Amino acid sequence: MEYTILSHFDIRPGTLTLWSAVRAPGTEWKVDERPLTCVHEKYHRDFDATDPRPGRGRWIGTIFEMDAPFDARAVRDLVWAWHARHEGLRTTVAAADCGAGRLTCDALDVDIVHERIPEVSASAELNDYLREMLEERLSPLVWPHVVIATVEHRDTGNFTVLVGADHSVMDAYSQVLIVTELRALYRALLDGTSLPHSDTFASPADYALVERQAAAALTAECTPTEVWRNFLSASDGRFPRFAPPVAAVEDTAEQPQTSVSRWLLTDPEIAATEEAAAALGHRPTTAIFAALALASCRLSGKPEFRTIMPVATRPHKRWAESMGWFVNIVPLAIPVPGGANYQDALVATDGALRHAKAATLAPAERIFELLDVRDRPRFAVSYVDIRRLPDNELITRLRGRALRADSYSSDEVYFWVVRAAEGLNISARFPAAYSPAVLQRFIDEFTAILREFGEAATAAPEPMLAVVAGQGAA
């Protein structure tokens, strides 16, 4: 499953309908005493309420092709059932005297409305219209925070589904879950069977209680704070930037960032690398970050690879299938001195990941308050292995893609590395003013390191077994 922008997905022509939630007449929001998470509160606090395009650079989502006939009533019921299942889609934020407060409505207070857009039907028109619509409608301040679009295709037995959401109610893991969840719900509605039930859809508002308890326990002297203090002290309090540095090629103010998505290695190729790393006692995550670190140090000449790594923070299986924002960030500093090889990088990366683990469940935003951090992350790398998810091959057959909005940042570089059944994919975004050749060289070097290590391990001869008289397997 690729992580990409909407303009890189070819939507087949068809009839467009938008679906969204509204509160039923006569219902009211209920004040919810459960807090926002630290990151949600900061996201809300930093948002410009006067922005005419609140979703610009912020929305995320999922698109796929539903392998069943379009039925308007069933789609309406699907959207309602999805909101009923996930309380996170029925909560919003309101300003309060002491900061942001939470409001929630019951499932029975929700109704679903739809809007047909008959004048938009061609592929390019659909893509442009949907990107504009998501930028204009999705906001952390205005509910609903989710919009669903369907495109009925003439003379086929399927239709396209796009789910767009403000980041405050969805994370990357949620994006992947959407495809199979909506498919299962829709099929149950068409068949007239009972909707599948699970105990793994707990509310993100309940998670916020857990996260706030963890934040309250942090001190200026605790281990997670020390991990971040040491990391930031090495760069005078600044977050890392992408290395090698990328020179601007022209003035590109207000232009969207350049986005790329590439399949780097086939499944057999990356599997060979993973098996070779496992033989040395290392996990796939270690193999990926070791290759990134070695590529960076080879091209930049710097003896340390420094980045920010997003990590999933669903602390219990009851949130395993929830829609919400369950993400933290941790610092990663991997020493790779000149002359180091990939095995050296594996060892260094293993140590760096173990060191960073102490900060996984410690809310970074609270630590930044304790340390009075004024900078913000500019370079991050995420790694996700979606093979662990059920029906990941089905997602591919349904043309499932995780989507991110076009970004307009002038200084951020982000990489998303995805291990899928088909192989290894990388998605990246970087400022339009940056030279694509430099980023491409980095990706090529990263790929070559992984491929060469796997090929070398595959080509290595099997060690001969020494036969010693009188000894054998016990």
TrEMBL record:
It comes from the Bacteria. One of its GO terms (biological process) is lipid biosynthetic process. It holds the Pfam family Condensation. Coiled coil: none annotated. InterPro entries: CAT-like_dom_sf (IPR023213), Condensation_dom (IPR001242). GO terms for cellular component: cytoplasm. Gene3D superfamilies: Chloramphenicol acetyltransferase-like domain (3.30.559.10), Nonribosomal peptide synthetase, condensation domain (3.30.559.30). GO terms for molecular function: catalytic activity; phosphopantetheine binding. Residues 63-380 form the Condensation domain. PANTHER family: FATTY ACID SYNTHASE (PTHR45527:SF1), NONRIBOSOMAL PEPTIDE SYNTHETASE (PTHR45527). This is Condensation domain-containing protein. It comes from Nocardia pulmonis.
